[in-house]
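Fig. S4 source data, part A: sequence.
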Amino acid sequence: GRQRLKMALAAEETTKSSRKRAASSSEDAAEKDAAEGECKRTKLPPPGRTIRDALPDSLVAAVCDFLTVPSRLMTALALGGRNGGSIGGTAVVVSSLVGGAPVTSLDFEDVEKELAGRLTDDHLESMLRLAKAATGLQILKLAGCTNITGSGLRPLRGSRVLRQVDFTLRGNHEAAKEEEEESQLSKEEVVSFLQSLLDGGGTALRDVSFPKAWAGDPAVGQWKENFDQYKAGCQIACSKIDCGNLISSRYHQTCYDCLNMFCEQCSDIIDGDDIDDYPFVHCDRCWRPRCKDCTTQQECVSCNHDGEVCSGCMP
């Protein structure tokens, strides 16, 4: 009787152990299936690659539709594209910049000022290369880029299509201050770059805006003289209707917006002249020369800017 009881207890213990093992195996299988299912749903990239490799080109392109040109170029860099590379989603980001057309204008006022202030010359050079700026970029405005020296302009050296460069580091209608924001811009780098545009002739350059603090600098002044002489040699006609004069090296003005140029006789006010015939609008806020085809002059009595301002500077 005792023997039969022992055998029965042993059989019961064996059954319990089998049930536990079966339950444990089922739980492990369920956890494995769940993990595999999660991976399948999220489509995680294999080891050695990053999450950006899992982003479809169509998604990257759709996001870029809502970004400004500088932001798209920065996105391309973030995806791994440097110096003209095509890593990850870079190719589709660049191709979607402006519907496949060349990048003709790059204005850093289109990004947050804090972000623009963190950009380095390496960032700028990589963005210019990605945008193929040497053959397509016509306008470059470095608003807020206080951390660059100018060495990042290398891709644009000798450009024959660049028409305007703004080194003032402020926005189109940002108030001109008596004391400008500190920057890392190097006069030597900037003048060397600008001279490369004149060397060999054939440049399309029409307007360059310098920081106010550089006024009176001998190297900058000498380059300005070279530039004025170059423009005079191009025999550019004054943009004022029925004028007929050519731009001289002595004095002329260029509209900041349309880049039309006006001769000395048309752009220099002399006492007794009819102000209505003067083609430019003087703005006491932004100090940028704009012709009357691009803006209007209005009286401002607010925002501590009493006086005449252009329409874009009106509050």
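Fig. S4 source data, part B ends here. The beta strands are 105-107, 139-141, 164-166, 207-209, 253-254, 261-262, 280-281, 290-291, 297-300, 307-310.
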